[in-house]
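Exercise 7.
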Amino acid sequence: MIQNLAGRISGVLFGPPRDPLSPETRHNIALAAFFAWVGLGADGLSSSAYGPEEAFKALGTHTHLSLYLALATALTVFLISTAYNQVIELFPTGGGGYKVATQLIGPYAGLVSGAALIVDYVLTIAISVASGVDAVFSSLPTSWQVYKLTTELGLTLLLMFLNLRGMKESIKVLTPIFIGFVVTHVFIIIYGVAVRGSELPVIVSETLSETGALAGQMGWVFVASLFLRAYSLGGGTYTGIEAVSNNINALKEPRVHTGKLTMFYMALSLAFTAAGIILLYLLWQAQPSSTGETLNAVAFRSVIGSLGLGASSSYVLLTIVLLLEGALLYVAANTGLLGGPAVLANMANDGWAPTQFSSLSSRLVTKYGILIMGFAAILILIWSGGLVDLLAVLYSINVFLTFTLSLLGLSIYWWKHRKEQARWLPRLTLSLVGFFVASSILIVTLVEKFFEGGWMTTLITSSVIALCLLIRWHYRETEAQMARADALLAALPAEPVANPPPIDPNAQTAVFMISRSRGAGMHTILWVQRLFPNIFKNFVFLSVGAVDTQSYGGEGSIEGLQQEVHSACDYYVNFCNRNGIAAKSYQAYGTDRVEELTKLALKVRDEFPNCVFFASKLIFVHDNWLTRILHNQTALTMQRVLHLQGMFMVILPMKVD
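Solution. The predicted structure, written as tokens, is:
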């Protein structure tokens, strides 16, 4: 009864489970370009709330250079997004920067890129929530500032809950916020520039003369250095561009077309908004506030005040705009809970992260990835106190580390395939220019901000890399041991026989829970025959195909999983039949292996009342917390479940050195 009640509560909170084998399921959860723009592009668009401000403040008193900055920002957005369209073409199953670096440079470059992306997505959640709360609190009394951190933590937990219900559900809830932000900010930018538009020719002329005068006093090297510093410290503006390529597998077919359309929406909206806001700073002479207001709030107040609505109406309109800005940043935080788990899943499939991170929940989302990304963001918020300036530094370094590796990988690819590709030269040129821009921003940001938080992101990313290396080493050692067992035991003959022995449902029956390792399965069978000679007349095999991100991500992968499970079951049945033992197999598929195995076990018990269940478990000579995390405990869990049902189960150890 308690289990039924828990199931009902879970259904209410997280929604009913989805059938991963249904052909309609993928269609229903895949994102069209508009919803992908909302869910994945919001990260890029929302960076206009803090990226332009960081760049503008870095200019100091030389604000006339912001005219060049606005132009450079828009061009850079289109440069990076166009380069990442190549990633979408070359890797239509997703993976983005991690897959690019892994396959085009090497696995260790992929590890660095993947670790940077993981930290980046954690910081996406943290900085988006913190910056959003800053925007909202800019319109509230100063005495309320003490509640900012508590608000940030509560909003992060709420976002985790929405994503545990399903990706598309979280995006649908947040779509009205996204539309509201776009409409209000487009209006303010167009109106603000139009009202002061007559001043632009004068400003352009003054900018050119002031730039020349500054160069005459300090030299062109100083001017270039000042501009490059501001341009680089505004690198947070370009964050989120890679989110589409990382999650291309979540888009509707045709994925490449949908991905490119989504990328265009995001690039156009970000270039317009970021460059437009920088122009507003210049045209309306915005200055940083000492009361905790954001620079956007200062500029927007001036623009709205010129509408002639009256003090109270202007305040209400400004509050609405800032609330929408804060809410959009909250939508952007959702990108971290979409992209981060996807990167973790890809790394888990390659052995860099625990295999649990590639597992799907009943709602077909990577539950463990969502939880770790969310709680890691909470820890970062507590450590930083929600300070956006500090988080922006940590954020930008990891983003541009991934950009640099991805664009380097693309450059290598086009050079290697120059004889096979007709349009290799313009693509190589685009990739090289992007690589130069991204690496320059990375170096300047790291040098300028190393002692203001840069050292921390270097330490965190390095720690993630070290942990991934340890995990990969352990999995490789275990795989080598299992490969030896497979070579020794799985090579036994198992061709089908013409007249297999008949099944006797009332005879003693051994039921085996088998996994992908045929060596482990044969180890269990041979030990049962040795420990219980001539006792069991029937051998029954239970196999569950675990539907994870690897089997659910690409076209035909579910069918491949089904074929793999069916082939393994046939092997065991044929082996038993050749040795005079009656055998049968049962198969199931789902996201929860224990749940599916339990259903099969109950079915077998009804058909074979005199049955005993068997499974194997890896026993490590040096057992520790790491081995227990990296390997599932399915056998122990099933033993407890079956014992509670009054069924017998024996676990046979398989020693791993």
